[in-house]
TrEMBL record:
Pfam families referenced in this protein's UniProt entry, alphabetically: DUF8153
Keyword vocabulary terms for this entry: Membrane, Transmembrane, Transmembrane helix
Transmembrane segments: 7-25, 31-48
Source organism per UniProt: Halorubrum distributum JCM 13916
Identification of the protein by name: DUF8153 domain-containing protein
Lineage: Archaea, Methanobacteriati, Methanobacteriota, Stenosarchaea group, Halobacteria
Sequence ranges assigned to domain DUF8153 in this UniProt record: 23-67
């Protein structure tokens, strides 16, 4: 995926979740920047390596048996 698009998606997700935490949180305003950093970084990693995530969490039992052995 294009790097700019990946970072744009990560920033959008991070800002959205941080905004929701700031709006509906318990009043601790130092929590929102931390939530933004965690969600933006995680989203960027997942989007960048979505093929690896898809194969890692695949639910096809036949494929898992072939990979893990008899």
């Amino acid at each position: 995926m294009n790097r700019a698009l990946r970072y744009g998606v990560a920033l959008t997700v991070g800002l959205s979740v941080a905004g929701l935490v700031a709006r509906f949180g318990n009043g601790d305003h130092s929590l929102a920047p931390s939530v933004f950093l965690i969600y933006a970084a995680t989203t960027s990693l997942v989007v960048a390596h979505r093929g690896t995530w898809r194969t890692f969490f695949d639910t096809d039992s036949d494929r898992k048996q072939r990979v893990l052995g008899p």
